[in-house]
Amino acid sequence: MDVTPYDALLFVSFGGPEKTEDVVPFLENVTRGRGIPRERLVEVGQHYFDRGGKSPINDQNRAFLAALRSDLAEHGIDLPVYWGNRNWDPYLSDTVAQMRADGIRRAAVFATSAYSSYSSCRQYRENLFEACDTTGGVESAPVLDKLRRYYNHPGFVAPVVDGVIASIEDLPEAERDGARILFVTHSIPTSMNDNAGPDGNAYVAQHLDVAAVIAEQVAERRGVTHEWDLVYCSRSGAPHIPWLEPDVNDHLEELAGKDVRAVVMCPVGFVSDHMEVVYDLDTEALATAEKLGIHARRSPTAGEDPRFVAAVRDLLLERAAVERGEAPERPTVGDLGPGPDRCPAGCCFNQRSQLPTLSGEDSPQYSG
Ligand SMILES: CC1=C(CCC(=O)O)c2cc3nc(cc4[nH]c(cc5[nH]c(cc1n2)c(C)c5CCC(=O)O)c(CCC(=O)O)c4C)C(CCC(=O)O)=C3C
Ligand SMILES: [Fe+2]
């Protein structure tokens, strides 16, 4: 397996606290300069304190990394895999410093965020720049190539489809065929969606595209068409700023009024069972459904499913081939096709941030 020109894979994630003392400094890292109301921080902090101060995300990333390293080894790919987070240890800058010390020249970058938007893509590219900049300058840093977005990669979608079907089958038999699928993702400010992707609206458009594919595959396999909606969780920010709606709980109320008796909540916006999934869906939304008398299940995330792990290997090999000047297959499902390897300048632009980025067409690492 030819991974030229890469000598490493860099796995980048959000990070989360490991223990009670970590919670407040973690939240400070996440929200620095972002105008999140204090009440919201206290509320979100409580979700972590209630679980002993430990986010589920780090153990999920450790499990994914172990699976990824085995997968690469099994396929004869001898490439070191590094891990760095945006908001908690292991911090991205420490990881990049280690990569420099190890003599890494060029790495493919996989982020645990599948869609386009400032929060889910461009901010990670800012973090890559900063990590290189603060460890000795971007010129001497390893070249970092963030892999294309993968929300519509068949290896990400297949386990999600299986999970939705399993959750439908887990409902009482009489409720299964009438179950409605609620695709759930992280809300973002509507202005952030307006600027998502090169032409705007990419965050919503990508979710609608993949949701339609999942619903279609479920219908084919079950022989029953299920109605579906795209809904949101985890709104933060000041109340007067519009964020994407409807909230999953509000939507459940509305569905109860329309005599919907069963739902499956599919957290398609999350690659593993993050705190948003564990709290906002498993704790809050399932309780809302119960109160309303709606039968509800939360379907699994892709997590460390071998097909999703293999998708990372595919994306790595695909990009390596592109960088060697070849024209590899670029598998996708749905109507939107593969995104660009290098984000165009201004992609997922955020008026309030405007920090330099790596991995885009305007990356200083590509101009020389
Ligand atoms: C689109 C998106 C993703 C998905 C893409 C991706 O995966 O990156 C994501 C992931 C995550 N968000 C996470 C946690 C938090 N996000 C916050 C705040 C915010 N998120 C936003 C958006 C997103 N967030 C936004 C627009 C804000 C407002 C502040 C800002 O503009 O930045 C806050 C502050 C408190 C609050 O307001 O909720 C916390 C604690 C965790 C860790 C969970 C765990 O521990 O398992 C993960 C994976
Ligand atoms: Fe978030």
From TrEMBL:
GO molecular function: ferrochelatase activity; metal ion binding
Pathway of action: Porphyrin-containing compound metabolism; protoheme biosynthesis
Any GO BP annotation: heme biosynthetic process
Species name: Nocardioides luteus
Record EC number: 4.99.1.9
PANTHER family: FERROCHELATASE (PTHR11108), FERROCHELATASE, MITOCHONDRIAL (PTHR11108:SF1)
GO cellular component entries: cytoplasm
Entry protein name: Coproporphyrin III ferrochelatase
CDD domains: Ferrochelatase_C, Ferrochelatase_N
Main location: cytoplasm
Enzyme class: lyase
Entry annotated with the keyword Lyase: yes
Residues that coordinate or bind Fe-coproporphyrin III: S55, Y124
Primary role: Involved in coproporphyrin-dependent heme b biosynthesis. Catalyzes the insertion of ferrous iron into coproporphyrin III to form Fe-coproporphyrin III.
Localization: Cytoplasm
Similarity-based family: Belongs to the ferrochelatase family.
Residues annotated for Fe(2+) binding in this entry: H186, E276
Pfam families: Ferrochelatase
Statement: the UniProt record of this protein carries the keyword Cytoplasm: yes
Taxonomic classification: Bacteria, Bacillati, Actinomycetota, Actinomycetes, Propionibacteriales
Reactions listed under catalytic activity: Fe-coproporphyrin III + 2 H(+) = coproporphyrin III + Fe(2+)
